């Protein structure tokens, strides 16, 4: 028994967008469906042994209970059409597995995994199981890969093995929304879910940056005053951070900053005008024709 495609050192990065897509699919599932099933899309870096799950889409299915037998029919034609449409927009994303919701693996997991093994072709599919029942007050995510087991020349079966490393990638644009959601969860207010203006987020980010700079300055001053023992890893991180910043004088930085602020204000103005125009069009469409 072996895992041909994955090792314990394999790093799997999961974009937060995928979790929100799975939750939305579960909330919007048909009344007769007990779970949501879909396809996982992403990229694989074979050189660095990194797999990144970046996108997903729901696949329609039918569940039917006949006595003790559970029949599960996946709309494979719909899945193929959705993948072709996704390739038009994101040709770099490939099928890397499938997801489902529930407390544990379903009885139809082996058949679904066999289907996605054919779709993944040159790699073994991943299976992401999301527990949407919120047991213990949190949502559990588990990642599996299928391992063929059995005796040579005899009956073979499929064993789902848990991959131990599952990292949720919180870098990038999604971090702004995640920080806002975390803030609302820790400090709930009456205006739950209200999005603040863009400039408020810029001010909060600037304030957090100032606090982090003060922390770095205190560390540097303590090291220079021999109040704290220097750490080589922190020194290398500070060196990499400083060398990554382009060298600009104060006037050039001020011009660049003001230009970016003007562009942002122009984008806010255009979005407000578009929103107003859409609201007017919606109201005019409900007026009776004379």
Automatic annotation (TrEMBL):
Sorted UniProt keywords: Cytoplasm, Initiation factor, Protein biosynthesis
MPN domain ranges (all copies): 12-150
Record bears the keyword Protein biosynthesis: yes
PROSITE patterns with a match to the protein in the record: MPN
Gene Ontology cellular-component annotations: eukaryotic 43S preinitiation complex; eukaryotic 48S preinitiation complex; eukaryotic translation initiation factor 3 complex, eIF3m
Keyword Amino-acid biosynthesis in annotation: no
GO MF entries: metallopeptidase activity; translation initiation factor activity; translation initiation factor binding
Record-level GO BP terms: formation of cytoplasmic translation initiation complex
Gene3D superfamilies in UniProt: Cytidine Deaminase, domain 2
Localization (cell): Cytoplasm
Predominant place of localization: cytoplasm
Function in brief: Component of the eukaryotic translation initiation factor 3 (eIF-3) complex, which is involved in protein synthesis of a specialized repertoire of mRNAs and, together with other initiation factors, stimulates binding of mRNA and methionyl-tRNAi to the 40S ribosome. The eIF-3 complex specifically targets and initiates translation of a subset of mRNAs involved in cell proliferation.
Subunit details: Component of the eukaryotic translation initiation factor 3 (eIF-3) complex. The eIF-3 complex interacts with pix.
Annotated family: Belongs to the eIF-3 subunit F family.
HAMAP family: eIF3f
Protein name: Eukaryotic translation initiation factor 3 subunit F
Organism expressing this protein natively: Drosophila hydei (Fruit fly)
